[in-house]
Amino acid sequence: MASAGCAVLQLPAIMSEPAWKPTSHDSRSAHLDRQHQHRRRQTQILRRRLVVSLIVLALIAAGVWVVVGNGGPGPSTVARGGSSDARSKPSDLPTTTTTTTTAPPPTTTTTSPGTLPQTGTFPTTTSQLFTANMVALWNGIVTDSVQVAIPAFFPESAYVQLKTVPSARDDFTERLVADYGLDIGAAHALLGPNAASAQFVGVDVDSAYGHWINSGVCYNDVGYFEVPNSRVVYTVNGQTHSFGIASMISWRGEWYVVHLGAILRSGSGGEVDDPEDGPGNPTYSPTC
After folding, report:
1. Would you state the pLDDT for residue 288?
2. Which residue, 23, 38, 160, 192, shows the most beta carbons closer than 10 Å to its own?
3. How far apart are the C-alpha atoms of 53 and 59, rounded to whole Å?
């Protein structure tokens, strides 16, 4: 009986050891779990950095918009709708400078015909330029202004090309234009108190009297056409009157006045060429 009781009270040796021992499989699972947690922490850190970067970029973009879009140096935008008060005036827009490698558009500045070479084209009396020049001549006579009438006069730059005389530019200004001004004053005096009411009819040019002047004649280095004794026709109180243009010469197919009252002057004052009641008649003279 004693030995049997001892057998019941004695514990097996296995009960003194732990109930569970980690296996190699369990060790690998714990290692993978630690790696997963490490990667998750890294992902969270990267996400936080990305969010911070996006916030910084947004702040920078907002700052640039404030500078450029609200009072900064960038060009203003002109409103295209709404009331007229919303539209920017040209004077309100900032001045900008644009650099381009393409050729600029052509300007509207008129090139002086005298800077271009002469042609042998016979002048017409129906061109817009001839009509405008004769109107300028008439307006200069009515207002007694050589400046107003100067478009009808032979271009200075053409005269410098044309003449072989010394100091052609001085001769043009001090002789030809000075005489032109005196003759305009004389024609204005002819109109007298009727100047304001006088009505311009036109200029009668007999093209049959136009003739070519060769170079080397009359101190000319360039040839041209000349037409003498055309008629300025006008009316006063319904009555027709006229006076002459002593000489017109051509440049590039257009007639220009070169002597209004006389070619060879009788004195130092202004002259009127053959004033008449009625339209008068152009006459021929072999002038140059």
Report:
1. 78
2. 160
3. 10
Q: What b-and-e string marks burial along 37-52, b requiring 16 or more CB atoms within 10 Å of the CB? A: eeeeeeeeeeeeeeee
Are 251 and 118 spatial neighbours (Cβ–Cβ below 8 Å)? yes
Given this model, what pLDDT does residue 44 score?
A: 62
The phi, psi pair for 184, rounded to 5°, reads: -65, -40
Amino acid 152 reads: A
Residue 25 token pair: 């499989």
Rounded to whole angstroms, the Cα distance separating 9 from 115 reads 138
Encoded tokens for 40? 């998750």
Low-confidence ranges of the chain (pLDDT < 50): 1-28, 30-32, 56, 63-109
Structure tokens at 285: 């003279």
Domain ranges of the chain: 114-277
Span 229-273, pLDDT tens digits: 999 999 999 999 999 999 999 999 999 999 999 999 988 899 999
